[in-house]
Amino acid sequence: MTNYTLKPVPLSKANFADYGDVVEVKHHGDIRDINYGMTKRYHDLANLDLLSDSGQPLFNIFRTSPVVFPFKVKVIERHPLSSQLFFPLTSQPFLVLVARAETLPTPDSLKLFITNGSQGVNYKKNIWHHYLISLYQGADFIVVDRGGKEKNCDEVFFDDDIVIEQV
Amino acid sequence: MTNYTLKPVPLSKANFADYGDVVEVKHHGDIRDINYGMTKRYHDLANLDLLSDSGQPLFNIFRTSPVVFPFKVKVIERHPLSSQLFFPLTSQPFLVLVARAETLPTPDSLKLFITNGSQGVNYKKNIWHHYLISLYQGADFIVVDRGGKEKNCDEVFFDDDIVIEQV
Questions:
Q1: Beta bridge partners of B4
Q2: Which residues in chain B have their CB less than 8 angstroms from residue A68's CB?
Q3: Per-window interface: B 91-130 vs A, CB < 8 A
Q4: How many CB atoms sit inside 10 A of residue A134's CB?
Q5: With an 8 Å Cβ cutoff, are B25 and A63 in contact?
Q6: CATH number at residue A144
Q7: Residue span of the structural domain in which B114 resides
Q8: Å from A146 to nearest chain B CA?
Q9: What ipTM, to 2 d.p.?
Q10: What total number of domains does chain A contain?
Q11: Does pTM top 0.90 for this prediction?
Q12: Cβ contact, residue pair A42, B60, below 8 Å
């Protein structure tokens, strides 16, 4: 068994492009003035990929408990049929832990990011990701994912000792 | 020309049922414990109706300017192909002005609600509704609606003097 320590880097559209969308107003190109000048529409912020195999879009809220540091990473998951979007309702950072879709995840393949409080993420179909790593008690997230009866979650468990220190 | 003054009532699932969903954690029945006990999933909070005529789900953010009171209601709109969901990112109330779908809206048919800061709304297809009536500068809303090239917005303008006083 090997020990791994993960340290987060700030999330950006550039460093997250292989894994999905950074959902944010900042740097978004398609802004539309609507409602007689009263509203700016930041249009189509994520590549929602929810409809394969008769999937339906779902709108949910996840209410999270914060992790305790040092946090041990035990399991990672993916959704083979759909993307999954998370957006914080509390303007607080959270951690994003991912691995590429092509192969089974290994400790070496994990990438850890931290959001800036105004960012959400939309994982591409099949991207390995940790469940929400929340830093604050009772932090709520909007989650847009796929509804349907088909199995849509794989998990891989790690034997190695993979730790996120205090952030 | 007749004068109308609208006063809001608190929004609830019961009084909004004809117009769409109140999107809120409170009173929601389908709560799932997931992520090894770290997360409560408030599952499927709105009847998203976005896929007719090859529609695609869109995830957007609307950045609003507040209205100035007394506010004159001049126009109301509907989307004949889809629902439209609004959820505030700032935990602040907003006003919701609607009319039933069956007929063209008249001043007498308008209903005005105020949210409690933890509520969003999801208008049913064809429900007449005012554009976002925001009360605070820079209030952001998540909006889930339909993407597609088809025309999906009708508007009706009022001749009468319809006013919302300070709330």
A1: B162
A2: none
A3: 91, 122
A4: 25
A5: yes
A6: 2.60.120.480
A7: 3-164
A8: 10
A9: 0.96
A10: 1
A11: yes
A12: yes
